[in-house]
Amino acid sequence: MVSDTTHLIVGASLAGAKAAQTLREEGFEGRIVLVGEENERPYERPPLSKGYLLDKTEREEIYVHPPQWYAEHNVDLRLGATVTALDPAAHEVTLADGSRLGYAKLLLTTGSSPRRLPVPGADLDGVLYLRRVEDSDRIKETFGSASRVAVIGAGWIGLETAAAARAAGVEVTVLEAAELPLLRVLGREVSQVFADLHTDHGVDLRCGVQVAEITGTGGHSSGVLLADGSRIEADAVIVGVGITPNSRLATAAGLDVDNGIRVDAHLRSSDQDIYAAGDVANAFHPLLGKHIRVEHWANAVHQPPVAAKAMLGQDVTYDRVPYFFTDQYDLGMEYTGYVEPGAYDQVVFRGSTGTREFIAFWLADGRVLAGMNVNIWDVTDPIRALVTSGKAVDAKNLADTDVPLTGLLEHPNRTG
Q1: How confident is the model at residue 407 (pLDDT cuts 50, 70, 90)?
Q2: Which of 226, 241, 256 corresponds to the end of one domain?
Q3: Residue 119 domain-assigned?
Q4: Taking Cα atoms as reference points, which of 45, 65, 68, 41 lies closest to residue 57?
Q5: Cα angle: 302, vertex 307, 313; to 5 degrees
Q6: Is the pLDDT of residue 26 over 60?
Q7: Count of domains for the chain
Q8: In 3-state terms, what secondary structure has residue 298?
Q9: CATH no. for residue 29?
């Protein structure tokens, strides 16, 4: 059932909504169908662990478009609809109700799901994960009644949730298997900043620990038992131990899948009429010369327009440098670039880590691979320029606040 005009988007997410918007902006007049499992129209996820969780962002602010936008732009938005199968040969998908949708081009923006904790007690009531808006609502509700919570996992979601809990006056214990929070992402030099941040705000941070069991009473979680026998009492347990790309449809359909749906720089999959964007896409990055899968908001904003244009036959590639941000307590941070664990040989600090106003740069052979600005603003453009230039810079100049960031590329070996 091949449709000559239908462009189908599976995943009514931020990425899916941005793709639909771009198709219309680029003049596509054919049928657009946007299908999503959730009953909520497409919304942005960062507020769920930041402003919305802190009650600083109103619910209506999280949505990508107002309700009427979809009808006004002739986008067939189907919510509460699950796609159960994909048939590339027939150019159609099957929905849970047995109905089928044909397509000329298909974009998969199915996102990711929280990784479940494989320990006894993980299915008890009061064990919470954060991915959807109803999860954020439930956690907010928990903060209103709980006096103490345990957070398993000191990644971005775990730490942002811990910060929100402390802002709500809840006692927090964070449990992390690694020696420091965010160790794999930031490395030892910078991870310590976040460890100190949370302990300074009263978090009981326990690193290098293994969770053996989530304990419970009457079907409700009551705490966490560690492998060393120690117990942490808690009214609720929040789990943030990573996410898994939702690539089941692609796998079953025979597409090339490896840590997400493998796509080229045009975001096209191994099937010429199927594309992928956002968390689920493991995309070839021209600048880095390798496939990477990025689980952050900026990808969900910027990849879909490229995919949509490629679906329309335009010669476009996705080569933006990865970017993400976090807000925790009085610390605001932006990270620009991409560094695999152990792929750098030097970290250079510009500013003071003690006052938490600094920029950290990760270097390899003098080249800036990534930069992270903490409580220093309007510097992402020069940081991006340093990353994309591929040029070596003098580490002393990089650390010297008297040397403008914008001048480092003009005088890469300047001494000062």
Answers
A1: confident
A2: 241
A3: no
A4: 45
A5: 135
A6: yes
A7: 3
A8: helix
A9: 3.50.50.60
Residue 342 is encoded by which pair of tokens?
Answer: 């152990």
Same domain, 236 and 132: yes
Q: Is the pLDDT of residue 118 over 80?
A: yes
| Residue 52, φ and ψ in degrees, nearest 5 | -65, -40
Alpha helices of 168-296 — where are they, by DSSP H?
Answer: 183-200, 248-252
Query: Are residues 237 and 131 located together in one domain of the fold?
Result: yes
DSSP assignments along 313-346, one per residue: T------PPPEEEEEETTEEEEEEE---TT--SE
User: Helix, strand, or coil here: 380?
Assistant: helix
pLDDT band at 411 (very low <50, low <70, confident <90, very high): low
- 40, 79 Cβ separation under 8 angstroms: yes
Q: Domain for residue 117, yes or no?
A: no
Residue 194, Cα to own-chain centre: how many angstroms? Answer: 18
Beta bridge partners of 364: 367
pLDDT tens-place string over residues 348-373: 999 999 999 999 999 999 999 999 99
Is the pTM higher than 0.85?
Answer: yes
> Left if phi > 0, otherwise alpha if psi is -120 to 50, otherwise beta: which for 55?
left
Question: 368 and 337 in contact (C-beta within 8 Å)?
Answer: yes
Considering the domain architecture, whether residues 137 and 233 belong to the same structural domain is answered as yes
Torsions phi, psi for 235 (to 5 deg): -80, -20
- Among 267, 205, 350, which residue's Cα sits nearest to residue 22? 267
pLDDT of residue 3: 54
At 408 the pLDDT is 87
**Which residues on adjacent β-strands are paired with residue 240?**
none
Q: Which domain holds residue 385?
A: 330-407
CA distance 302 to 309: 12
Looking at 127-182, list the stretches that DSSP marks H as alpha helix, in order from N- to C-terminal side: 133-145, 156-167
Query: CB under 8 Å to 300, separation ≥6 — which residues?
Result: 13, 14, 15, 18, 45, 109, 277, 278, 279
**Res. 414 pLDDT band, cuts 50 70 90:** very low
- What is the tens place of the pLDDT at every residue in 372-383? 999 999 999 999
Q: Are residues 226 and 136 in the same domain?
A: yes
| 195 and 164 within one domain | yes
Q: Determine what percent of the chain is predicted with pLDDT higher than 90.
A: 95
pLDDT score, position 294: 95
CA dist., res. 135 & res. 141, Å (int):
10
